[in-house]
Amino acid sequence: MRNGTQRIGWGLIGPGRFAQEFAQELVATERAGPVAVASRDLGKAQDFASRFGFEKAHGSYEELFADQAVDIVYIVVPHVFHAEIAKEAILAGKAVLCEKPLTPGPETTRELSCLAKERGVFLMEAMKTGFLPAIQKAKAWIDEGRIGDLRLAQADFCFSGPTDPSDRLMNPELGGGAVLDVGIYPLHLTRMLLGEIESLAAKGTLAETGVEDSTAIVSRHVSGASSAMTCSFRTEEAMSASIFGTSGMIEIPLFHAAKKAILKQGGEVIEVFEDHEIGMVAAEIEAVMDALDEGLIECPGHTHEDSIRLAELMHEVRSQLGSVAT
Ligand SMILES: NC(=O)c1ccc[n+]([C@@H]2O[C@H](COP(=O)([O-])OP(=O)(O)OC[C@H]3O[C@@H](n4cnc5c(N)ncnc54)[C@H](OP(=O)(O)O)[C@@H]3O)[C@@H](O)[C@H]2O)c1
Q1: Residue spans in the chain of domains classed CATH 3.30.360.10
Q2: From the alpha carbon of 168, which atom of ligand 1 is closest?
Q3: pLDDT (tens digit, 9 = 90+) per residue, 74-120?
Q4: Which of 31, 140, 232, 325 could form a disulfide with 214 if both were Cys (CB 3.0 to 4.6 A apart)?
Q5: Can you spell out the DSSP letters for 29-80?
Q6: Distance from residue 99's CA to the centre of ligand 1 (Å)
Q7: Could you say which architecture CATH assigns to the domain 130-280?
Q8: In terms of pTM, does the model score above 0.85?
Q9: Is the CB of 284 within 6 Å of ligand 1?
Q10: What is the pLDDT of residues 170-200, one digit of tens each?
Q11: How far is the CA of 264 from the centre of ligand 1 (A)?
């Protein structure tokens, strides 16, 4: 157990696109010490460290694992490298927050969870959405019965993405495809708000590289509710969610990074929750540090079982679409 006022030393691996967004919020978090950045290219690590206020730069990931000042490693590299890097970090005794999806498949996700448990080391998939106050408010409205009995949900994560076959999103060797990259968000949200997914059916199209570029998923939840989800790299932007009950509905614009939730009954707006102060990952970072302070090896807000179940669901979707071997 740590003392809640102690600074927690963060090391970041992979100073690429999303790392910049995360770093901005990390350095603004009081309890977080931005200790070190590691890249395969020392110059790139040095540049990132000076831009975002990290104390040190390392020219290899191994150097960061050996850095005594690092308590937790944040891994933000293409999905296919998550498992190996997280494994090395756990073996070095470092807590791990790893970007979504924790690994591209259920087997590797289970193995990583087992290793973290064996070693007594904290491990978490960075699913930021569930920690956002607007999503927590939507969950509270549902739990309070404000929309009656849950019946349906619709959640989309679609945008016009890259076409370059070598891009991380398009390249199967880098874990490309819409399901792993953004399909995980509607699956996570509907599972969080409607309960466990019992079965699903998926249809869609594959890009020339063999990865999914557009996918529609319908799910049946154990609660009896159903959900419809989409994810795509090939459409106009659509990133909202709606939850429908017998006596009301909730709309969540830009749900993966939600700042707003709207409660409606009988077509009228009853309540609007807005929080424009909070960033995308600040609440997730606080939840990680609370778990570390309590000496936990899983974050109660997003457990290993949650990651394993999401990996199973994504595998099922991709198997039905033919983008992974069944
Ligand atoms: N939570 C969110 O909202 C969110 C949003 C976007 C992305 N993500 C996740 O963040 C992860 C990274 O996405 P990104 O778009 O930031 O990735 P990216 O910019 O394409 O790459 C990030 C870094 O990965 C490292 N890397 C290590 N081995 C590599 C290899 N063989 N080929 C290419 N890069 C390699 C590189 O770091 P060095 O060369 O410096 O070592 C690179 O800068 C993904 O898993 C994605 O799902 C999360």
Answers
A1: 130-280
A2: 20
A3: 999 999 999 999 999 999 999 999 999 999 999 999 999 999 999 99
A4: 232
A5: -TTEEEEEEE-SSHHHHHHHHHHHT-SEEESSHHHHHT-TT-SEEEE-S-GG
A6: 9
A7: 2-Layer Sandwich (3.30)
A8: yes
A9: no
A10: 999 999 999 999 999 999 999 999 999 999 9
A11: 39
